[in-house]
Amino acid sequence: QEKQQELLNRNKRLRLRISDLESELKLAKRTGTKGRPRKAVDSLLSHDKIVLYGKKYAIVVEPFIDSSIFMKPAPQDATRASRSDARFSNFSEYKAGSIAELYTYLSNEAEMKEQASGYAPFRDAFVHEVRSETSTALHTIRSCAPVIFSDLNLPGELWPLNAATQRKESILVQSLLLFPEQEAPGIFLPIFYPGLVKDNNFLFMNEYLPKVR
């Protein structure tokens, strides 16, 4: 009898707690996080599509998006421009190629293409989703780093975000980031070149980094 009463009391407390949590959730939905008023919904934007295309962009195009590629007119032949070798000849051409690639990526969404060229709220929302997905992906990769780099037999404590000092002091980690006699990491890291061998037959001097189609 005593045990049954204890269970009833516990059940009552849980129901009250659930009720409190439901109230807090309703309040959060009305006000947004930390009590701030939520932004008004922009009826011109398709939120679901922006979430889908933004998160997908971070995976299939590139993880670090440059917001300045928006608010620009679409190139006449975006697909050809995004795949041209000339895109990698200098930074100016690279940016032009990135603009073309954005419009190629949105080629099946006429409304989104139009908004990308001249509607700042679309730019801000799209960039937010790309960066959010990149942050999530980096967190996942960092969590899985001990498995990804298991063949290197590196200690697991090197991978947390706050272990920068330990990584800097690890000779093996530094050998993956710095070529001999190099003091700071460059654009191309030794980890991409087995045996430190660069093959000039490839655009990025190895067969692993992205190639122009």
How would you describe the overall organization of this protein?
- With 213 residues, this protein is mainly alpha-helical.
- The protein folds into three domains: 10-39; 47-141, no CATH class; 160-213, no CATH class.
- Helices cover 54% and strands 0% of the residues.
- It is built from eight helices and no strands.
- The protein has helices at residues 2-31, 47-60, 78-83, 91-105, 110-118, 120-148, 164-169, 171-177.
- The longest helix has 30 residues, at 2-31.
- It is flat.
- The mean pLDDT is 81.
- Residues 4-31 form a coiled coil.
- Keywords: Coiled coil.
Secondary structure elements and pairings:
Elements: H1 2-31, H2 47-60, H3 78-83, H4 91-105, H5 110-118, H6 120-148, H7 164-169, H8 171-177
Helix pairs in contact: 2-6
